[in-house]
Structures are given as structure tokens and as C-alpha cells.
Amino acid sequence: MSYTRPRHEGPLARSAMAFVLAGGRGSRLMELTDRRAKPAVFFGGKTRIIDFALSNALNSGVRRMAVATQYKAHSLIRHLQRGWNFLRPERNESFDILPASQRVSEHNWYLGTADAVFQNIDIIEDLAPRHLVILAGDHIYKMDYEVMLQQHQDSGAGVTVCCMTVPRQEATGFGVMAVDATGRITEFVEKPADPPGLPGDPDRSLASMGIYVFETRLLLDRLRRDAADPASSHDFGKDIIPRMVAEGTAQAHRFEASCVRSAAESSPYWRDVGTVDAYWEANIDLTDVVPPLDIFDQDWPVWTYAEVAPPAKFVHDIGGRRGEAISSLVSGGCIVSGAFARRSLLFTGVHLHSYAQVEAAVLLPQVDVGRHARLRNVVVDRGVRIPEGLVVGEDPVEDARRFRRTERGICLITQSMLDRLAA
Question: Nucleotidyl transferase domain location, by residue (predicted)?
Fold first, then answer.
């Protein structure tokens, strides 16, 4: 571990509640989110994106959690019910799934991130946590929230915002802040077209990670006032945080202070896998000999729903028809039958038939790759049946005509795309 926990009267996480905002579509993932919300997208061979925020909370000592869902939530809710139903109320634990259900108004679903919390204010009050940790459910990282909670209490801030330095040209998609020598946030701009640089380092900006800590009573008071403001967009980044910055009560928490790293991880890791290119790259990075994210770290495990599946199987051993996987992650239930995989990630139940070749491929669960198919630089959606002899990744013009091809040359393949080709 790269951090040390301060010693106080006891762990604050045990009396805190994690509220995960998981209602977004993630439209930049294109067809991957046609049927599921971004937090429900598969990642890393057997997990979903949302498992990282929830696992961070669990590993930090938080035992009360809630997940607010909205966009096409069935896949996400089913995963949460299967994989996160072990928290028990008789142990003062709770896990609530909170779909948008017009609890406050008969006319409004969740209007923004702050409104998603406000509409469940009665549930929060019933649980009466001392602090609320507000989390985005769509990022990949390992973090000990206890460290941030301790800083929040010590500083006496109204809100503590987790932040990290990013290249200035990449900061347009974040809330960008300026801080003084004490860490107090003096300026906060949501998704600026021209992000301000850091003093002495104009090519980098300080970006909000969408992770906030509040004292619960203070936040609920702010949410009630925000809900009554017709001019508000009811969003943390656009409304709640800027107001508290203007009042001088917002404090910054540096991610590197609480980022969890194993001995194999050389630097803090955080990824927004919000585009097809970023999603492909983050998954393929896991096939490196020493990947930037250590998913084998048993000191900080990533909890998930573990499907019951047999071991992976490799069969046939003759020239040109040998079951092999090099520099790849192969999940349970996979069959590599006289086929070859290099630098690829095979999720549960993938079947590669004889003479097929895949390279730099992210194959989601239950993908079936036909004989003699060749796939390179692809993301293949769940349950897709790749026909015999299909070649992807060798002819950019043909790839763009048939599939979703990114500027970096990554092809996203769905079953509906293949069905159109066969029609």
C-alpha cells in the first residue's frame, strides 16, 4: 500500500454512507451502452465498472451503500442484486438500489446528480450516517475513502473534493479548480472550454474526480435549498460545489494521498473509460506483463458477482490448429479450440473455434468466434456470433463501412451490425 491511515478515535468509514451515482448512459461508448448503463459495462474479464467504486467503499470500511440508477438499469440492477446482496442489516449494514421513481415529484425523474440524492433524502435520514461519500459509478481506480474522510473531519470543511492533476488539454471534461496553499478551493469551473493551468505548471490542471465528502446534515440542508431554486440545474458540479467554493468552505483532497497501490503499481491509477478507445486501451493494458492496474492485488480485492463457470479449456495441438493464448487474460468457461489469442482479454464463456485468430481483442461474455475468423483491435459486445472467415482490423475502409470504427482504428462489433451485413 502507498498510503497510511491517520490514527483518530476510530474509523469514520464505519459511520459513513457511500452514495453511488450510476444513472448515466455514457453515450461516448456508442453501442456498448445501447442496452445497459455505463456503470454496468463489463471490465477486466469478470467485473463491471461499478464494482470499483463499490469495492473501494467496502475495502475502506464503509458498510452502508446506495446506488442511484436511471438509464436502462435492468442489467445494472440484476448485477447488483446478484453480486452485492451480502451486506446485512442485522450487522448495521445496508445496500439499497434506488431507481428513479418520482419519489419527490410525479413529473420528474432524476434531474441531476444532486437531485438524485435529494429524491432519496428520506432513506438517508432513516439511516442517519455521519458523513456522505458521493461517488461516480463509472471510473476505474482503487482508493481508500477513510483517508479522505479523516482529512475532511480534520479540516472542518463543508465539502471535500477529490482531485488529480491532468494535462490541461484533457481537462475540458472535468470540473477544474484552483487551490490556495492550505488546500482550500478558491475557484471551480465545470467543464471549461479553456481550462486554467496550475501556477508554475500551465500545461496541467487540477481536475475534480466527482468524489465528494459531506457532513450529512449540512448536505441535506444544501440539497433542500437547491431543490427549491428554480434556476438551479440540481447538479453537484454545476451548482452545489461552486456555491460552497464561493463561501470558502470547500477543501481539495489529492488523489495520490489515498490512492491504493500494490508493490506492482508504479503510479496512481484512475481511468475514465468513457470512449471506445479508452475502454479498449484500459482492458488491453491489463495484458501487460506488469500492468498499470493490479487486479491481482489481494490486499484490495475488486468484489463482483462471480458467475459459476468451469475452468478455461485449450484443445488441439497440431500445426496450424493449436489452442494457444499469449499475453492474454482468459476467464472461466472459455474454450480456445485450435485457435490463437494474443494480447487479448476473453470474458466468461468466450469460444474461439479452430483456426480463428484474435489479437488486441476485448471479447465480452459469451462471444463465439467462428472458424478462420481474424480479429484485430476490436471490442466485441456480449453474445455476438462472429461468422466463419470474418476479417476485421486489416482493411480500414471496409471496417468503417461495416462496423463502428474509431479514429484510433478500434472496431466495435455488435450483433445487430453483423445481422445487417447478412440481410
Answer: 18-287
For residues 341 and 259, membership in a common domain is answered with no
Residue 10: pLDDT band with limits 50, 70, 90: confident
183 marked as binding residue: no
Specify whether 173 is located in the same domain as 318.
Answer: no
Domain that holds residue 54: 12-287
What CATH number should be reported for the domain holding residue 249?
3.90.550.10
Q: Which residues contact 184 (CB under 8 A, 6 or more apart)?
A: 157, 248, 250, 251, 252
Rounded Cα gap, residues 1 and 257, in angstroms: 11
Question: Is 208 assigned to a binding site?
Answer: yes
Please state, in angstroms and rounded to a whole number, the distance separating the CA atoms of residues 149 and 132. Answer: 9
One domain, residues 246 and 394: no
pLDDT at 1: 42
Residue 260: strand, helix, or coil: coil
Chain mean position to CA 130: 26
Phi then psi for residue 44, to 5 deg, are 75, 15
Of 134, 95, 92, the residue nearest 219 (C-alpha): 134
pLDDT tens-digit series, residues 314-356: 999 998 899 999 999 999 999 999 999 999 999 999 999 999 9
User: H/E element holding 330?
Assistant: strand 329-330
5 CB neighbour count, 10 Å cutoff: 15
Distance from the Cα of residue 218 to its chain's centroid: 28
Angle, nearest 10°, between helix axes 50-60 and 74-83?
30
Q: How many domains does the chain have?
A: 2
55 marked as part of a ligand binding site = no
> Are β-strands 385-386 and 391-392 bridged in parallel, bridged antiparallel, or unpaired?
unpaired
Task: Decide if 188 is inside a domain.
Answer: yes
What span, in angstroms and rounded, lies between the C-alpha atoms of 406 and 399?
Answer: 10
pTM: predicted TM-score of the whole model, two decimal places? 0.94
Residue 299 lies in a domain: no
Lowest-pLDDT range of 78-87, 97-106, 227-236: 97-106
27 is in an annotated binding site: no
- Indicate whether 224 pLDDT > 60: yes
Q: What is the CATH number of the domain that holds 411?
A: 2.160.10.10
- 210 and 345 fall within a common domain: no
Residue 146 assigned to a binding site: no
Check: CB of residue 336 under 8 Å from CB of residue 325. yes
Residues 53 and 165 in one domain: yes
Task: With H, G, I as helix, E, B as strand and everything else as coil, classify residue 104.
Answer: coil
